[in-house]
């Protein structure tokens, strides 16, 4: 598993572009996208590796929080499902409770189930 | 472990190590699996981590739940609380038979973690659009390919339930053990894949205490399905001929 090789390349690019930490900027999103691309290239050998899966998950979440797809393509993403506000909403602080309606999942839904046990 | 995906695919998988089950803007679930017995590729779940992603919604603070098979199921999130968000939009409850449930109201999602013998089990019920959201609109930054609940196990990680099961107990004995309900909580007879999976586990682990645990785990898993997704069960029992490819030669 070559997750460390991808991580070193990510750190090198962050230094080179003078980005001190993850931020909602086009430059960071480009670095993050390259990092994800490098990780995907190692996917088969990294299955089951905690560091690999955690890094993939964290990068995906940062990309979503920072609206990277929008920053990188400069178009409005379409196709979001009518779920409670996600990355477009600012994080709630203790002083700003969310409106009740916003936190109620409206509508009729079909449900899906997943289970894992044994063996 | 044995996996029933959101698409109702039933798989027995190797998936040794750390693997994501669910990974979307609202919830992340990851499991760690370890080998069950020497000489068998079968693994079982020894750790479950659930993250309720508060940063992506104003409806809850971020919460993490961690369960490990070598300790009792924690009764709280790791910060010691059982609730989060306005009007308790995230609630963790503790139930008998070593089971905890997390209900996330703003996405109508139920998560269950069970301790079955020496191992852990997981179950999730969530709206279809949230399942599909996983691979959604985030382009390069979305990746549903590694979520076992969404895509199932990679082909190379799948085990054949007949050729790769153990032989520590004959099929007949294993079937008898699985048909006998050892679980205090569940009295429903095992059917469908849950019966097949129980037979796989008991044949692989033998006639010791762990066989009881695995039979009980199958009953618990089926109990969750009866509650959360009852229409998926067809009440189909497996014949000896279906389970044993050599049956016709032997007879």
What topology emerges from the helices and strands here?
The complex is a heterodimer of chains A (119) and B (251).
Chain A: H1 3-16, H2 26-41, H3 43-46, H4 50-65, H5 68-73, E1 111-117
Helix pairs in contact in A: 1-2, 2-4
Chain B: E1 2-4, E2 10-13, E3 17-23, E4 27-35, E5 43-52, E6 63-68, E7 83-84, E8 90-95, E9 99-104, E10 109-116, E11 119-127, H1 128-133, H2 148-151, E12 158-159, H3 171-179, H4 192-205, H5 209-228, H6 240-243, H7 247-250
Antiparallel strand pairs in B: 1-2, 2-12, 3-4, 4-5, 5-6, 7-8, 8-9, 9-10, 10-11
Structural overview:
- Chain A has 119 residues and is mostly helical.
- Chain A has five helices and one strand; from the N terminus they run αααααβ.
- Chain A is flat and about 50 Å long.
- Helix content of chain B is 24%, strand content 29%.
- Chain B has a five-stranded antiparallel sheet with strand order 7-8-9-10-11. In chain B, strands 3-4-5-6 form a four-stranded antiparallel sheet.
- In chain B, a hairpin with a 2-residue loop joins strand 10 (109-116) and strand 11.
- In chain B, helix 3 packs across helix 4 (192-205) and helix 4 packs antiparallel against helix 5.
- Classes of the chains: A mainly alpha (119), B alpha+beta (251).
- Strand 1 of chain A pairs antiparallel with strand 11 (119-127) of chain B.
User: Mean pLDDT of chain A, nearest integer?
Assistant: 78
Major β-sheet profile of chain B: 5 strands, antiparallel
Poorly predicted residue ranges of chain B: 246-251
Taken as a percent bin, the fraction of beta residues of chain A is 5-15%
Oligomeric state of this protein: heterodimer
Keywords:
heterodimer; A: 119 residues; mainly alpha; B: 251 residues; alpha+beta; five-stranded antiparallel β-sheet; four-stranded antiparallel β-sheet; 12 strands; 24% helix
In short:
Chain A is mainly alpha-helical and 119 residues long. In chain A, 47% of the residues lie in helices and 6% in strands.
């Amino acid at each position: 598993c070559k997750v460390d090789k991808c991580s070193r390349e990510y750190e090198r690019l962050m230094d080179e572009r003078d980005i001190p930490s993850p931020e909602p900027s086009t430059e960071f999103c480009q670095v993050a996208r390259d990092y994800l691309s490098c990780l995907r290239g190692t996917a088969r050998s990294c299955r089951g590796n905690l560091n690999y899966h955690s890094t993939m998950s964290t990068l995906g979440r940062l990309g979503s929080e920072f609206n990277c797809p929008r920053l990188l393509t400069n178009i409005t993403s379409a196709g979001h499902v009518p779920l409670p506000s996600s990355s477009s909403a600012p994080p709630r602080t203790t002083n700003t409770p969310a409106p009740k309606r916003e936190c109620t999942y409206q509508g009729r839904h079909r449900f899906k189930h997943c289970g894992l046990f044994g063996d | 472990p044995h996996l029933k995906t959101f698409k109702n695919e039933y798989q027995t998988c190797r998936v040794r190590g750390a693997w994501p089950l669910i990974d979307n803007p609202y919830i992340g679930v990851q499991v760690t699996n370890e080998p069950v017995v020497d000489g068998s590729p079968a693994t079982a779940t020894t750790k479950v981590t659930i993250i309720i992603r508060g940063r992506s919604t104003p409806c809850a603070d971020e919460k993490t739940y961690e369960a490990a098979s070598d300790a009792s199921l924690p009764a709280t999130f790791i910060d010691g609380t059982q609730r989060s968000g306005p009007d308790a939009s995230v609630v963790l409850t503790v139930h008998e038979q070593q089971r905890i449930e997390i209900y996330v109201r703003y996405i109508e999602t139920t998560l269950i973690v069970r301790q079955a013998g020496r191992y852990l089990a997981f179950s999730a019920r969530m709206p279809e659009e949230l399942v599909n959201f996983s691979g959604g609109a985030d382009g390069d930054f979305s990746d549903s390919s590694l979520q076992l609940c969404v895509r199932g196990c990679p082909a190379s990680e799948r085990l054949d339930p007949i050729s790769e099961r153990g032989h520590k107990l004959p099929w007949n004995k294993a079937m008898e053990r699985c048909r006998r309900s050892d679980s205090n909580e569940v009295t429903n007879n095992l059917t469908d894949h849950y019966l097949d999976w129980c037979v796989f586990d008991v044949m692989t682990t033998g006639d010791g205490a762990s066989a009881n645990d695995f039979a009980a785990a199958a009953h618990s898993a089926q109990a969750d399905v009866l509650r959360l997704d009852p229409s998926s069960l067809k009440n189909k029992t497996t014949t000896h001929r279906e389970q044993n490819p050599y049956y016709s030669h032997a007879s």
